[in-house]
Structures are given as structure tokens and as C-alpha cells.
Amino acid sequence: FERLQTGSILCQLATVIYDLVQKQKVRSLIPAPPPFRVNAQAGSFLARDNAANFISWSRLLGVDESCLFESEGLVLQKQPRSVILCLLDVARKAARFGVIPPDLVRMEQEIEKEEMTSSTISVDLKKRAKVLKLDDAVHMVVDGRPFDGQVDMERVGEGRYRIGGKIVFIRMLRGKHVMVRVGGGWDTLEHYIITHDVIR
User: Fold this and answer.
1) Pseudo-torsion of CA 85, 37, 59, 170, nearest 10°?
2) 97 shares a domain with 46
3) In the structure, how many helices (H) and strands (E) does the chain have?
4) Buried/exposed 111-134: b ≥16 CB within 10 Å, e otherwise
5) Structural domain that includes position 82
6) In what order do the strands lie in the sheet with 160-163?
7) Could you tell me which residues come within 8 angstroms of residue 167 by beta carbon, excluding any fewer than 6 positions away?
8) Same domain? 85 vs 138
9) Is 190 a member of any domain?
10) CATH number, domain containing residue 17
11) Does a structural domain hold residue 90?
12) Domain contains 150
């Protein structure tokens, strides 16, 4: 995260995305990359200016306001989570222009496709089998090592669980991975349990 605090790497990312879209010779309305100073020092005005330019470019790209961060949050390393959420949303928007997204965004897209196709299936038996499979997979994670059933969790509804007092949405990816909806993205259930300290 420290390498990002000058904002120049983020602006370089915008330039790379722009260049990739232009090479595809696709007529698109992707905004031109922001101007930036490569030699900006951490904590300087130029670093803040780079961050602000990247934020403006992200806004033009279509990144939701709730996913944007403050330039101070990047430069002073106060908002690492917001920066990551912004970068994930930039990757999602860039994918619409044909840029190959990172694995996490690709997994999200696959989950969303699965949700779309599964919502069109009206057969109740398939739906119940899917719910049972999800419940079984969730319990395998929670009851298995290293948690040994010590996770504070209860099923609230179809695909919804209360973990440590917070209701989360859980889905299966490719029938193998148990994924939890976190902010604008997804995380594995194991990692979510470890990072949110919900063990009894």
C-alpha cells in the first residue's frame, strides 16, 4: 500500500487501461488518462494532486461515489479499504471495455452469472438441493479445521447467515468455493471468519 501513496501508480494504471482499450480499436467512451507526476514524493502536494486526478478519472469511468476514496486517505494511508474497493470497481468498469479483469472480479462475474441463471430456474427441487448443498458446504467450513464448530453462526434464510451478529450473503462458486459478499466484492468464508474475529 505504501507504493500507492504517491498516486502515480494509480494514474499509470489508468493509462494502461486506456491504452489497452485503444489497442482494441473499439469505439468506446473511456475517459483519457489523468495527468500525473511520476516523481511525486510521499505526503507531498504532488502526491495529493495525483490522487485527486485519479479519483476524478475514476468518477468519469463510472465508479460509484460510495467506492471512491479521499486523496488524503491514500496519501496518508488512512483509507486502505476504500482504495481497494475503488480499484476493484475500476477493474469492473474496465472489464466492460474488454480489459481482462483480475481473478477476484472474474469470480464475481461468474457468481453473478450463476445467480442470474439460477434465478430463472423455477424448479423447486433444484432450488432446495442447491440450498442444502450450500448449507452443507457452509457447515463443512465452520465445523472443519481450524474452526472446529466454534464460529458464532446461524442460518437466517436462503443464502443468508448471521455470523458474529452480522448478516452476510453466502454463495457457492463453481460448486467448490464458499464465498461471502463483502462490500462491493466477495471473500472466501474461511478468510472472512479469520479476519472478522467471530470465533466463540
Assistant:
1) -10
2) yes
3) 7, 5
4) beebeeeeeeeeeeeeeeebeeeb
5) 2-106
6) 153-157, 160-163, 166-173, 177-182, 185-188
7) 156, 160, 161
8) no
9) yes
10) 1.10.418
11) yes
12) yes
Give the three cell numbers for residue 135.
448449507
CATH code, domain carrying 154? 3.30.920.20
User: What is the share, in percent, of the chain residues with pLDDT greater than 70?
Assistant: 84
Confidence band for 125, pLDDT divided at 50, 70 and 90: very low
Backbone angles phi, psi at 162, to 5 degrees: -100, 115
The residue among 76 and 124 whose pLDDT is bigger is 76
How far is residue 94 from each of residues 17, 28, 31, 40, 86, measured CA to CA in Å? 7, 11, 11, 26, 12
And the C-alpha cell for 63? 465508479
pLDDT value, residue 183: 78
Report the range of poorest mean pLDDT among 6-20, 129-143, 170-184: 129-143
pLDDT tens column, 153-195: 788 888 888 887 788 888 888 777 888 888 778 888 888 887 7
Could you tell me if residue 98 is inside a domain?
yes
Q: Which helix (H) or strand (E) holds 61?
A: helix 45-61
C-beta atoms surrounding 42 within 10 Å = 14
The grid coordinates of residue 101 equal 479483469
* Mean pLDDT for the chain overall: 82
Contacts of 190 (CB under 8 A, 6+ apart): 141, 178
Residues 23 and 87 in one domain: yes
